[in-house]
Amino acid sequence: MICMCQHLKLLGKLRRNKLNDRFLEFGSTLEPGKPVKADKAAILSDATLMVIQLRSEAQQLKETNGSLEEKIKELKAEKDELRDEKQKLKLEESL
Predict the structure, then answer these.
(1) Is 66 helix (H, G, I), strand (E, B) or coil?
(2) Dihedrals φ, ψ of 42, to 5°?
(3) Would you state the pLDDT for residue 92?
(4) No. of H helices and E strands in the chain?
(5) What is the mean pLDDT of the chain?
(6) What is the DSSP string of 26-56?
(7) Tens digits of per-residue pLDDT, 55-82?
């Protein structure tokens, strides 16, 4: 029969092993194709850098999207002006 302290040690070891496996899995998803770092601090450091990079890219994409939406509005307004001008010219020709 396993005593309580041995049981707790076993549970702790299982939890640590599971946590280590998750760190390795997480590390492998950060940079697929590269060797997985076994150092938890290195994995967390890489993850932090990646999150910072992704936030920066997301901000740049939001800004680009905003400027493109503004350009679309300008082009639509120009298109409407040209359409109105065309209609006026057609009316003038028919007179």
Answers:
(1) helix
(2) -65, -40
(3) 86
(4) 2, 0
(5) 91
(6) HHHHHSTTSPPP--HHHHHHHHHHHHHHHHH
(7) 999 999 999 999 999 999 999 999 999 9
Asked if 80 and 61 touch (Cβ cutoff 8 Å), the reply is no
Q: Which 3 state secondary structure label does DSSP give 3?
A: coil
Let me know: does 37 contact 46? Beta carbons within 8 Å: yes
End-to-end CA distance of the chain: 107
Distance between CA atoms of residues 58 and 65, nearest Å: 10
Sign of the torsion formed by the C-alpha atoms of 20, 25, 30 and 34: positive
Question: What DSSP state is assigned to residue 86?
Answer: H
| 27 C-beta neighbours (distance < 10 Å), count | 21
